[in-house]
Amino acid sequence: MVSVPICMLMIRRHNGHFSPSAILDLQQRLSACVDEVHSWMQSNRLQLNTNTSELLWCATARRQYQLPRCPFRIGPDTFIPSTAVRDLGIYIDSDLSIQTHVQRSVAGCFAVLCQLRSIRRSVPSSVYQSLAVAFVLSRLDYGNATLAGLTACLLNRL
Question: Is 8 helix (H, G, I), strand (E, B) or coil?
Answer without folding.
Answer: coil
